[in-house]
Amino acid sequence: MLEVDVEIERDFDLIRNLNQRFSNQPTCTETILKSMRLAQLNARRLHEFSYVVDDMIVCTTTLGQVSEPISQSEESVKGEFSDVEFSLSVPIVALDGHITSMQVRIGGFQAFIRPLPIDTMQMPWLQTGVYAITEKGVQSVLQPLAVEPRAPFQDDNPRWWIEEGRWVEQYCYGSGSCGLVVINIALYLSHRQEVVLVILMFFTLVAGLVGVVIWSAHKRYMQIGRQLKRSLNYRTVDCVYQPIFRLDNGHLEGCEVLCRWRDEGNQQIRPDVFIGEIERNGQTRQLTEIVIKKAIDELMAAGLFGRIRMAVNTFPDDIASGHVDRILTKTLNGRPCQSVTVEVTEQEASNVGEVAENIEQLRSKSIRLAIDDFGTGYSNFQHLEKLNVDYLKIDQSFVRGMETNALRSHLIKSITEMAQILGLQTVAEGVELQAQFDALKSLGVSFSQGYLHAKPMPISDFANYVKQHKISNIG
Questions:
Q1: Cβ contacts of residue 50 below 8 Å, gap of 6+?
Q2: Is-contact 349 355, C-beta < 8 A?
Q3: Which residues are bridge partners to 393 per DSSP?
Q4: Fold of the CATH domain 232-467
Q5: What pLDDT score was predicted for residue 378?
Q6: Where along the chain do its domains lie?
Q7: 2-113 matches 232-467 in fold
């Protein structure tokens, strides 16, 4: 089990290294192709590496650069706290799609997993499965079974139960994934001598395919808090910029500034992974100052500051304490502030009075305010009147599927109508489809943000992106 764990984790690191070297490359180059072939040569459990751009395969280690990009439409499964996506029964393009296999993808690179050398045909009474607990619910990572994991999903003790003549045991790794062993009791009684193989196969499958991912993630998260204390600084925080467009004329209005943190292994970590540790460490003020200062520095250097609106996320306590006001005053040093929007996450706050008071202080300097992820918090209607803001950012959970879901569309319409009554503008997050864009426009939403327009990008790419689009007059 330990040997398989080490081999698979090492192979996953090969893919991560490829992403670090060649992230955001628009095409497959000979250098990328040679690097993939070298990674395949060094891999023990992975084969047939490929490079994917916009969900289209552009080259593989066997075919080289393909003449026409090949679509990747297979549904993937990704558990919480993991950068690894699994796809089941994916056709191997190098074999004309006649043979399928399990595929793993990290970032822009993917590969097929070699099957583990265990003969399940000798144990017809046994089934094993691994399930990822995702935002869509319980999803199978291996093959679906007749039974599914049972909540609560806890990693402290295994659970077992009897279901329709089957003995089921469940092991969960936190809230991210669960492994199941399912034994047909009647068949098992005639194969009792294989009980040792049952245990061996279960742990090998779970540890080999998913356990190592959860274990490595857990180990990394245990270290994140300590690393943040040592290495949260201007150099290790990266700013990326996602465009925001007006729905009425399709012009570029501005961008939201998002941050990434690079750990001591130079691996880029998403905010949803490290923000919790930032709050536990009491480092919110430090992160807020770094992001605001770096974003303004980069936008000024690119000649964009003041031409487009810059929206930056902040912590409510940092607004309540006046910290955000002090940072902006110091960083801008007398420059105009009307192109800056400060976003505050909607939450149940005991210090809403202090937040509201300091929002007024920011507004007196022509800085605009927005409530982020509106509709998902506890205090949306209760505190909205107290917080004198300019924008409501409609959470992507409402936008996702709205083009076919009448309830979500109705909820967005209600939020938009309420915002219009209060004199507020609305920003829809997570817009990925043209049908969503058109529906939001018809509902009177003011602005659109999401992958339909562009993914978050570094400042150099964003500066080029701005040159290709009409800029709205932000006034």
A1: 36, 57, 59, 60, 61, 93, 109, 110, 111
A2: yes
A3: 427
A4: TIM Barrel (3.20.20)
A5: 47
A6: 2-113, 120-221, 232-467
A7: no
Q: Is 20 helix (H, G, I), strand (E, B) or coil?
A: helix
End-to-end CA distance of the chain: 62
Angle at 381 between CA 377 and CA 386, to 5 degrees: 105
The amino acid at 450: G
pLDDT at 104: 87
**Cα separations (Å) of 245 from 228, 254, 375, 472, 473?**
34, 7, 21, 8, 12
Q: Which amino acid is at 88?
A: L
The whole-number pLDDT of residue 114 equals 80
Q: What is the DSSP letter of 125?
A: T
Pairing label, strands 252-262, 237-246: antiparallel
Place of tokens 């509201």: 356
Token pair for residue 34? 């040679």
- What is the distance, to the nearest Å, from the Cα of residue 172 to the centroid of all Cα atoms in its chain? 22
C-alpha torsion angle, residues 382, 385, 386, 387 (rounded to 10):
100
**Segment 329-375, tens digit of pLDDT:** 999 988 888 899 999 876 555 577 888 889 999 999 999 999 888 76
Cis peptide bond upstream of 91, omega within 30: no
CATH fold of 2-113 = Beta-Lactamase (3.30.450)
pLDDT tens digits, residue range 381-431? 666 777 888 999 998 888 988 888 888 888 899 889 988 988 999 999 999
**Half-sphere exposure for 458 (CA within 13 Å, toward CB):** 7
How far is Cα 259 from Cα 245, in angstroms, rounded to an integer?
20
Nearest to 189 by CA among 216, 167, 162: 167
Phi, psi values for residue 431, rounded to 5° = -75, 120
CA distance 8 to 213: 9
pLDDT for the residue 253? 95
Residues of the chain with pLDDT under 50: 1-2, 118-119, 378-379
What are the b/e assignments for 296-330, b being 16+ CB within 10 Å? bebbeebebbbbbbbbbbbbbbbbbbebbbebbee
Give the chain's mean pLDDT: 83
